[in-house]
Design goal:
The complex is a heterodimer of chains A (266) and B (372).
Chain A lengths: L1 H15 L14 E3 L6 H18 L2 E7 L10 H11 L10 E7 L4 E7 L1 H5 L2 H16 L3 H20 L12 H28 L18 E18 L12 E4 L4 E7 L1
Parallel strand pairs in A: 1-2, 2-3
Antiparallel strand pairs in A: 3-4, 4-7, 6-7
Helix pairs in contact in A: 2-6, 5-6
Chain B lengths: L16 E4 L4 E4 L5 E2 L1 H35 L8 E5 L6 E5 L2 E5 L6 E3 L12 E2 L6 H12 L8 H6 L1 E35 L2 E25 L6 H6 L9 E2 L9 E3 L5 H22 L5 E30 L2 E8 L5 E3 L5 H22 L1 H7 L2
Chain lengths: 266, 372
């Protein structure tokens, strides 16, 4: 049943472009499982949850799984996700507020796309935060758990933004924190400076430990010089690369038409 | 009977003479006459010889008297000697190592030639070059203009107790040291092989042996003088060394050695071996050198006995005495200064307050916290 709805909606919207979702109303459907990863029961739980979030936040939250994103557009996964969002007029309200997570199974690519209020609420730091939560599930093919994490944490960040606090790097810092850390940092720096200064001023009187100044001729007469190879040791260190990792952090993308996204592998 | 003490007196007016470091001559402060060391040596050669002989006899007598007094149950102090000032006749009580002093009654500089003759005669003397007036100036320079932790009252109220020019006995060692060091030499190269960075380290058994000769390594030969102060006064310019003459001593204090060359030798040997080890190690051309063993021995050594010029200055502040020393030839000044803990905490508090405001309002703290 859910598969029929998904296929019907997406195929029509993506290829024929004739039945766009009304931008001012609630989305008709939030979960599009074209790759067939969810059971019917899982689908409806997630769909209900996504609808509830979208309604409360007035920001549509979508989850789309496909076999290969290249079937739906040109470019990298961020470009295709953006095309899907625009062509189908996804999102809610005049600003098309929405968040879309797309999974492409061919190369296990994902893209978390945000627009309008979704873009405001999900900063790059916020996208990293949500991605960390769902990638560990998707990495072990836990599609339901991953999607649930995605919805839960997106809801959390949208709620924070509605309350006036955008989740971003350092958003937890309050004025009190700034004073306390400034004081601690200043005390440590001052102690180091004062101790060094006092050490320099003390003018310690020490015994001499060498007699370099009394060396006759200024040099040593070397009578034995022997360097014999003994053995070799080898240390191997793996080079960390972004590609090929199932929990890749991927990269951030921004477009001039108000989209931002984070993509990578899962 | 001849006196054990010689007072060098001006041949023109009989006032006391003193050695003047700047001119290198013996100066009479009363009539302004000055005499070269050679002239005074010639004049006083006989007198010094007689004084040395008298000193020897007096020492024998003193030993006998001490033994008799001890047998009679009297308290005796072997570290003290009594002399009679030839100018005013007062009795001078000195330490047994004192070789030059000043009479506390008439102020005349007095030399005890017996302390510096025969086996006790120094080979060299390095005459004073720096005058007494320069020492106090050097002390104030030593305080430093920007010493934020020097107690203010120490700078303003501190009382200079004593400024004394002292010829300190030193052993100057000529030595040849040989040694052999064993090390693990390491050179590394890193290459990329597939998904790995592979670091290959080549290890070498390295040996370096060699000899080094040292010329006149100084070790102070007076128990009274703190070793760290005397070491800190180095270096002395040995090109100015003179053959010893008591004529350089008037106006200054002098002691004969009470640390023998054998007792002083280990300090010299440790310094020379340390230097040789450093030199051998610096000859090794590997990126990393890990020392494994080092053995060294002194092949040859010869000790020269010399008197070197040192200004000693003591100041008193809050019932505590602070000692400073100055190289009487080069002017190098050493000495530990007190620090005021109150000033330290006050400066720390003010700096912390300023930095807190700077960090808080410059955005540095926000930036640093944002990294987490």
């Amino acid at each position: 049943m859910k598969r029929l709805i998904s296929i019907f909606t997406v195929i029509l919207l993506l290829t024929l472009f004739i039945v766009p979702v009304s931008a001012a109303e609630e989305p008709e459907c939030c979960i599009y499982d074209l790759a067939g990863l969810l059971t019917d029961e899982e689908y409806w739980v997630l769909e209900d949850y996504a609808q509830e979030i979208s309604e409360v936040q007035q920001c549509a939250v979508y989850f789309l799984t496909v076999d290969d994103y290249r079937d739906y557009g040109d470019g990298v996964i961020f470009d295709v996700a953006r095309q899907i969002f625009l062509v189908n007029e996804l999102g809610m309200g005049e600003d098309q507020d929405g968040v879309l997570l797309i999974l492409s199974m061919a190369d296990r690519d994902y893209c978390l796309l945000a627009h309008g209020f979704g873009d405001t609420a999900l900063t790059d730091y916020g996208k990293d935060y949500i991605s960390e939560e769902f990638l560990d599930n998707f990495g072990v093919n836990d599609w339901y758990g991953g999607c649930m994490d995605y919805l839960t944490y997106t809801d959390e960040l949208l709620t924070m933004a509605r309350d006036g606090v955008v989740f971003d790097r350092g958003s937890w810092i309050t004025s009190g924190h700034l004073w306390i850390f400034s004081l601690i940092l200043a005390a440590v720096l001052s102690a180091v400076i004062c101790l060094i200064q006092r050490g320099l001023m003390k003018k310690k009187v020490r015994q001499q430990t060498d007699a370099m100044g009394y060396l006759k001729g200024g040099a040593v007469n070397i009578t034995r010089r022997r360097d014999v190879f003994s053995h070799a040791t080898e240390v191997r260190q793996k080079i960390e690369t972004d590609s090929g990792s199932s929990s890749s952090s991927g990269g951030h993308s921004h477009s001039s038409d108000g989209f931002s996204g984070k993509s990578g592998k899962f | 009977m001849a006196s054990e003490i010689t007072n060098y007196q001006c041949p023109a007016c009989t006032a006391p003479l003193r050695f003047d470091g700047e001119s290198g001559k013996l100066q009479c402060d009363f009539c302004g006459s000055s005499y070269s060391v050679a002239e005074i040596e010639a004049l006083y050669a006989e007198k010094d010889k007689a004084a040395a002989e008298a000193s020897k006899q007096a020492e024998e007598t003193a030993k006998t008297e001490t033994a008799e007094k001890e047998a009679a149950g009297w308290d005796t102090d072997e570290n003290l000697r009594a002399y009679q000032c030839p100018t005013c006749g007062a009795e001078l009580i000195c330490e047994k190592t004192t070789a030059a002093t000043a009479c506390p009654y008439c102020g005349n500089p007095s030399v005890v030639p017996g302390q510096l003759s025969g086996a006790l005669k120094p080979e060299f003397v390095l005459p004073f070059k720096i005058e007494k007036e320069a020492v106090v100036k050097a002390l104030h320079k030593h305080y430093g203009k920007h010493n934020y932790y020097l107690p203010r009252l120490f700078r303003s109220e501190n009382n200079i107790q004593k400024v004394q020019g002292v010829y300190v006995p030193f052993w100057l060692f000529d030595a040849q040291v040989s040694g052999l060091g064993k090390y693990d030499g390491q050179d590394s190269v890193t290459q990329r092989k597939g998904d790995y960075n592979v670091t290959t380290t080549m290890h070498y058994n390295v040996e370096r042996g060699g000899t080094a000769k040292f010329d006149k390594v100084p070790v102070d030969a007076s128990k009274k003088m703190p070793d760290n102060y005397m070491d800190s006064l180095e270096p002395f310019d040995y090109t100015q060394l003179k053959d010893f003459s008591t004529a350089y001593l008037p106006g200054f204090l002098a002691d004969r050695f009470d640390v023998s060359a054998e007792e002083a030798s280990p300090r010299m040997e440790a310094r020379c071996k340390d230097t040789l080890e450093h030199l051998l190690r610096s000859d090794i051309d590997h990126a990393v050198v890990v020392p494994e063993s080092f053995q060294a021995k002194v092949d040859k050594k010869e000790a020269h006995y010399a008197l070197l010029p040192v200004w000693m200055l003591t100041t008193k502040w809050r019932d505590k005495t602070y000692l400073f020393a100055m190289n009487g030839q080069t002017g190098k000044f050493v000495g530990e200064l007190p620090t005021d803990n109150g000033l330290f905490w006050r400066n720390l508090g003010i700096l912390t307050l300023i930095l807190t405001l700077v960090l808080r309002f410059s955005g540095i703290t926000r930036f640093l916290l944002g990294l987490f």
